[in-house]
Amino acid sequence: MSSDNQWSADEDEGQLSRLIRKSRDSPFVPVGIAGFVTVVSYGLYKLKYRRDQKMSIHFIHLRVAAQGFVVGAVTLGVLYSMYKDYIRPRFFNVSKK
Question: What is the Cα–Cα distance from 2 to 64, expressed in whole angstroms?
Fold first, then answer.
């Protein structure tokens, strides 16, 4: 394989360094992951105290909440990326020479 192929995995890069690099590229991905883990953890904790609610309904609500958090984080990431790439250069750069 070619060495300039950006889709190939770097053999020396560990999981933590890859996560840090990806976090710099798109900062809302770790927010989405953390929110997903938080919602799922809370939902599993509340599973014990669901009273007369069916388990399948509880899991459906849990899935919708977790997906909603992730979609919201991705949407914020896209909006931030659009701001960074298009709006900020247009209004805050005086001249490009």
Answer: 42
Whether residue 59 has pLDDT greater than 80? yes
Q: How many residues does the chain have?
A: 97
pTM: 0.63
30-13-23 Cα angle (round to 5): 20
Q: Phi-psi category of 51—alpha, beta or left, where left has phi over 0 and alpha has psi -120 to 50?
A: left
Instruction: Output the 3-class SS for the chain.
Output: CCCCCCCCCCCCCCHHHHHHHHHHHCCHHHHHHHHHHHHHHHHHHHHHHCCCCCHHHHHHHHHHHHHHHHHHHHHHHHHHHHHHHHHHHHHHCCCCC
Q: For the segment 65-84, what is each residue's pLDDT rounded down to a tens digit? A: 989 988 998 898 889 888 88
